[in-house]
Design a protein that fits this description.
Undecaprenyl pyrophosphate synthetase, 14% strand, binds farnesyl diphosphate
Amino acid sequence: MALSVATLKRSFAQDACDITAPKSDAQAAVAAHGIKHLAIIMDGNGRWAKCRNLPRLAGHKAGTDNLHRILRACKEQGIRIVTLYAFSTENWNRPQEEVNGLLKLLELSIEKELGELHKEGVQIRHIGRTDRIPPALCEKIRHAVAYTRNNTSLILNVALNYGGRAEIVDAVKRMLADGLDPNYVDEATVSRYLYTSDLPDPDLIIRTSGEYRVSNFLIWQGAYAEYYVTDVLWPDFDERELHKAIEHYNKRERRFGGLKAR
Ligand code: FPP
């Protein structure tokens, strides 16, 4: 079964994006001393579709729809930065039909969600290279980023055509182009040259669908992140699953290479 653009458009039109739900003091308190930056590897869309005898693209569509409730839940938890791995530099190696479908999904979701996200104060950012992104999608991203740039309630980083190694290569190139003195290059300098330069490193990286891999995602920024892997496939990863991940995180003791505080 092929999933046409018209079908995708229709089903987007039926969805509602509401990340406005009020957050309780208790929920805010949990996250306030915890997770500032949450990053997610949204894996398992293909398997989700396969289980239902649907085309892979239907899984990606379900995965995209899942973002509403997850962003809403993040906001409720007081998480202020969310980074989503939407399309990696390696994803270009997938069949052309899937690549085109995924890129179209991204374009349609920006088109449909931008107004609501803006109303909710979400600042959209893009991390990744722009070189291979089709011009129409590139323009939508550029517009979404410019349109929401003064928003402050939640920063949503969309990692698209993103690779952690490519990001480091780009940082090194820019450092060289800027003529930096090697004697003054330290870890803080490198961090400043990454796509995420002004943001704190992720506290928690969630990977759905059970694979224990980093997959070239935030490899510098994730050096001290807590990882949480669940077997749940991304389209099924709901608020309850997010709360479980946060509970896990809250139980862990982050030592950043040091010793337990006495
Ligand atoms: C991995 O599942 C998922 C992807 C490669 C794409 C994820 C992208 C989205 C959910 C769209 C995001 C949209 C926006 C607007 C940010 P897989 O296909 O590798 O699953 P499998 O391992 O089961 O085959």
